[in-house]
Amino acid sequence: MISYIIRRLLLIIPMLLGISLITLLLMHFSPADPASIRYGLNPEVSGSARAQFRELYNLDKPVLVQFGLWLKRVVKLDFGNSFIDDVPVIKKIGERLPATLLLGIISILVIYIIAIPLGVSSAVRANSFYDKIVTVAVFIGYATPAFWFALLLIMLFGIHLGWFPISGMRPWYVEYYSFFGALKDLLWRLVLPVAATSLVSLAGISRYMRSSMLEALGQDYVRTARAKGLKESRVVYKHALRNALLPIVTIASMILPALIGGSFIIETIFAWPGMGRMGYEAIMNYDYPVVMGVGVIATFLTLLGLILADIMYAWVDPRIRYE
Questions:
Q1: Beta-strand (E) ranges in the chain?
Q2: How many angstroms separate the CA atoms of 161 and 308, rounded?
Q3: Residue 198 backbone phi and psi in degrees, to 5
Q4: Residue 165: pLDDT above 70?
Q5: Which of 111, 120, 159, 198 is spaced 20 to 30 A from 134 at the CA atom?
Q6: Is 197:240 a contact under the CB 8 Å cutoff?
Q7: Residue-wise pLDDT tens digits, 213-231
Q8: Quick one: pLDDT band at residue 39, thresholds 50, 70, 90?
């Protein structure tokens, strides 16, 4: 297992290189000039100053040369400086990454805490009135776009009822709060972004859980356990549930990339100061260093999530061994 994890970690390197090169090529195929974005139509900035800007950031060199120079810096964990404010990219990512991870991790916890019991209860009561109600609710949730649901939450619970804040992670007056007061305020501000982020994945996971549980309940070992006179709760939660969790664990490897990739939508709508929102703003401003830095970190987190899913899969099913 350890050798497998090491091999997977080493495979991250060529994948990061490939994705970084593709990201740089895509940015260069765009028609806009970063110098024009930086200085706009300011008449006080001469053409020579713009040329100096391109030379300073190696934009006057071929793409592959730029990529090589970028790699040389990245080895030292130097992603360069932002074109917009000259702040080091690694510093900007360090400031935004915790907010994205907080939103993503809490969303995954909420998804699994709600989806697994929902899928199990729906499978145990298959074809009952409860199961049909849950099925309809899940399909509605699955078909609802995340951005539309986010706007609906803002309108209903943020503006009309005024129960939850609709933007930001911390208010300007947070320094006057006690520790627990600041923590309570943060959790309160997480409610709407987490709900919007979790909806589609929650609906999908609960459906997978129902199908997997129905299949497990039809297996011979479950019938044998019932024939031995075991309690139904013991049959369901001890014997069937563990095997039914196998595909759900595998699906976890797809949730993390989806949450990271889709985070820029939710973070932008709720003005959440995360890495996804920063990446979106960087793309709009043709800020190459920030786009490259965000792409590398997002790819690394995604691949790390895939490895973690494999480890969890082996832990849930002792028959799985990676050699």
A1: none
A2: 40
A3: -85, -20
A4: yes
A5: 159
A6: no
A7: 888 888 888 888 888 877 8
A8: low
Contact between residue 120 and residue 209 where contact means Cβ atoms under 8 Å apart: yes
Dihedral pair phi/psi, residue 210, rounded to 5°: -65, -50
CA distance 114 to 109: 9
Backbone angles phi, psi at 88, to 5 degrees: -55, 135
As a whole number of angstroms, the longest Cα–Cα distance in the chain is 87
Q: What is the DSSP letter of 175?
A: G
The residues that bridge with 88 in the sheet, in sequence order, are 81
pLDDT at 302 over 60: yes
Phi, psi (deg, nearest 5) at residue 81? -110, 150
For 219, left (φ over 0), alpha (ψ -120 to 50), or beta? beta
In degrees, rounded to 5, the angle at the alpha carbon of residue 55 between the alpha carbons of residues 285 and 26 is 40
Cα distances from 53 to residues 44, 282, 288, in angstroms, run 14, 18, 13
End-to-end CA distance of the chain: 6
Can you count the helices (H) and strands (E) in the chain?
13, 0
Residue 323 has pLDDT above 60, yes or no: no
Structure tokens at 282: 């960087």
Buried b (16+ CB within 10 A) or exposed e, 72-98: eebeeeebbbbbbeeeebbebbeebbe
Query: What confidence tens digit (pLDDT) does each residue in 9-29 have?
Result: 777 788 888 888 888 888 777
Type and span of the H or E element at 312: helix 288-316
Rg (CA), the chain: 24
Helix/strand/coil for 54 = helix
Phi (first) and psi of residue 86, to 5 degrees: 65, 15
Do 34 and 83 contact (CB within 8 A), yes or no? yes
| 160: number of Cβ within 10 Å | 9
d(CA 83, CA 254): 33
Residue 112 one-letter amino acid? Y
Query: Length of the chain, please?
Result: 323
Distance CA 102, CA 97 (A): 9
Q: How many CB atoms lie within 10 A of CB 282?
A: 24
